[in-house]
Amino acid sequence: MNSISATIRETKTRGDINSLRINGSIPAVIYGGSAKNQKITLSKKELKILINNENFLSTMITLNIGEKNENVLPREIAFDPVTDEPIHIDFLRVLKDGDIVLEIPVKFINNDKSPGLKRGGVLNIVRRKVELKCPAGNIPKELIVDLENKDIGESFKISSIKLPKGVKPTIQDRDFVVATLAAPTIIKEPEKPAEEAVEGTEGAEGTEGAAEGTVEGAAKPGEAKAGEAKATEGDKGTKKEDKKTPDKGAKVVKDPKATAKKK
Prior knowledge:
By secondary structure, this protein is an alpha+beta fold. Among the domains are: 2-95, CATH 2.40.240.10; 100-182, RNA Polymerase Alpha Subunit, Chain A, domain 2. It has helices at 14-22, 44-51, 115-118, 194-243, 256-262; strands at residues 2-8, 25-31, 38-43, 61-65, 68-79, 86-93, 99-109, 122-125, 129-135, 143-146, 155-157, 168-169, 177-182. The strands form 3 sheets. It has a 6-stranded mixed barrel. Strands 10-7-9-12 form a 4-stranded mixed β-sheet, with no helix packed on it. A 3-stranded antiparallel β-sheet has the order 8-13-11, with no helix packed on it. A hairpin with a 2-residue loop joins strand 4 and strand 5 (68-79). The protein starts with a strand and ends with a helix.
């Protein structure tokens, strides 16, 4: 059982309470039973260690107030809205012969031994906590649900969970469901073998090679046209050269008939 030291406080104003918080203390109140409410202060550092525990609100704590020890349950914690630090806490006295109503967390074990989860099943948690009526001296820390050998389609009701002696759920009119093991909503397609994947890659490479060959073949007719154009330009140049006047050193042969007419 967890324990923490506490001191009785005599604060009367809001300023007194603020000074306690500045000095690292948290004001608290103990109530319940036939005794009067008791104002106390706690160490903020020690209290934060207890608050960080998962089941803090359902765990019995022993307050060491001077020479007196008192068993209590934390019922409500107030936090600062800006810093999120605890600024006040209420404790309920635990009477030896009394019953207490608490919300006890549910814990699931042996998940790796469930065939349903191995086949892709989904654990749907309906209630993460169950409200129970417990004797003061027999408060369970958690409720255990064993998933070993559990398959898809099974449900876990409160009647299937083993409860300590004297502990009863507050809901008595039905056997309510805590969780179910349902079938997966998405069916996974089987993965292709590695050999098929390699063959598909080689086929893609062959397609790329064929495409490159087609592009190169398409470029050749264009190159031929360019060659033809160059050849045409060469012919034109030859004709122009033919029309030029002959060189001075060359002999000119005249038609004799044309000479006679001039005479």
